[in-house]
Amino acid sequence: MATLLRYYKFSLVFTAACFALGLWYGIASTDSVSGVLEILWIIFILSILEISLSFDNAVVNASILKEMDEKWQQRFLVWGIAIAVFGTRIVFPLAIVAIAAGIGPIEAIDLSLNDPEQYEAIVSGAHIGIAGFGGAFLAMVGLKFFFDADKEVHWIGVVERNLSKVAVLPAIEIGVLLLVLWVISLQLPEEEALTFLTAGVLGLVTYIAVDALGEYLNMREETRKNASGEVMRSGLGGFLYLEVLDASFSFDGVIGAFALSNNMIIIALGLSIGAMFVRSMTIHLVRKGTLSEYRFLEHGAFWAIIVLGAIMLTSAVLHIPETITGLIGGALIGLSFWWSLRHNRREAEEVKDALTPG
Question: Strand 231-232 relative to strand 224-225: parallel, antiparallel, unpaired?
């Protein structure tokens, strides 16, 4: 138990601080105990939703973070939260409002605090662009994992083996994504179609740029081995990649949070707690070696990312509740975990049979 708490101690302290801020804000902004309790309840629900919707994010983060040394893993946990909390959960929605409404940042903050309904309407009105950008980036993350000619471990064999085979075609995953973007844009009015396509291409370009920057930085950085003899990278490129990935995951969560509240402070507190726990789960998965222990868990997470990317792209023309998104992602990860246990049991039985005298 003490070992488990070691990974989540920072998150628990952060959670307590967020609830203390929520309590202070509730007392300052409402005249009743029920109003304060309602604010704290919404913060709690938002944090639970963010955690449940982002477990696949933690698994994918861990698959990248495991190649970084402990110093950069800690930086991701501590420094990254400033970007995740203040960047994606606060600054990003404010920037959308400022750009969409043609106002300055101070006016956007004033709007979020004093006219939350209008603030919500502006952020929600930018959904087409957000769906295109975030969906394209997440889809590329998932497609890149499966369109890999060197990939040897397959979970859904009949699909993944064929994807690995066609991966010898240069940039096949980019072609697939562009085709999907074009097909979805045909279902939209002309002006929205242009916004969607532009945002989708920008999401694709951002993925390529961040991936290329990460590779460039990793080539320049000195590599070294950990206690197990695995090569570890110091990780600036991976850190940047993880932050953009986290931002893409959170786009839909920020929009979906308005179903519970249109108050910027309440949304930021609730989602930030979830973001912090996702980081702690990531570190836990890396330090415990869970990805190597459960063979197909990583595959389930990347399939969940492809589904999330597809849902985000499709949401430009069809609204799909965030609950369904979370359930699909959770089901895929749960299945991959169960399949990994099944594989481990079978492997253990084969070893036992081999060691048993004739």
Answer: antiparallel
